[in-house]
Amino acid sequence: IAGVPPKQNSVLGTPSHPVQIYSNVFYQNNTVAAGTAYIFLTGWGGTVDIYNNLFMNSHGQHNGGYSSIYVQDGTRASDNNPVVDYHIWNNTFFDNVWHIYIRSLTPGYELDRPGYHIDIQNNIFFFPTAIGNYTILYSQSDSTTDGLNHSAPTTLDHNLYYIYGSAQSATNEYEVWTC
């Protein structure tokens, strides 16, 4: 789900009627780039539940180098759009470059507005080999120059992490979690 909403007050889902992405297998084996992420959320507000999915093999050469789930920018408060309410629960991430990538890119659309929720809970993050450029959660805030991270998740809890050997980010950007 990507692109700027066609008009103000566009909502992906509400707490009583969320957009639900569940019980899917996402696997990529192309030899050329095939998009930014399996799930791309940008410029929208509302409630999205992503749960009980299996994400595999989203290496840079397969999907353009980002992640299984890519969240970029929220909504502007001045547009009176609903806040971001994203739940990433009970998923398994296997052999991806960055399992989840959260980014505030556009000034005024930062992901830390009051009431925003990006909850990452009860997931399994698994790297089967020790390859150097892998990060479980990559959080990047390049929308402002105030030195603050405007892209951190609200909740990062009750997750399981398995990595063979050690893994580090390929860039020097701010990271919430690195193994």
What is the structure about, briefly put?
With 179 residues, the chain is mostly beta strands.
Describe the 3D structure.
The structure is a single chain. The chain has 179 residues and is an all-beta fold. It contains 1 helix and 14 strands, in the order βββββαβββββββββ. It has one helix at 60-63; strands spanning 19-22, 25-27, 37-42, 46-51, 54-56, 67-72, 84-89, 92-94, 98-104, 117-121, 124-127, 135-141, 155-157, 160-163. It starts with 18 loop residues before the first strand and ends in a 16-residue tail after the last strand.
Q: What is the terminal-to-terminal distance?
A: 29 Å
Total DSSP helices? 1
Mean pLDDT: 75
Largest sheet: 5 strands, parallel
Radius of gyration: 16 Å
Global geometry: globular
Tally of DSSP β-strands: 14
Unreliable segments of 5+ consecutive residues: 166-179
Order of helices and strands: EEEEEHEEEEEEEEE
Structural class: mainly beta
Give the spatial strand order of the biggest sheet.
Answer: 1-4-7-10-13
Percent range for helical residues? under 10%
Portion in strands: 35-45%
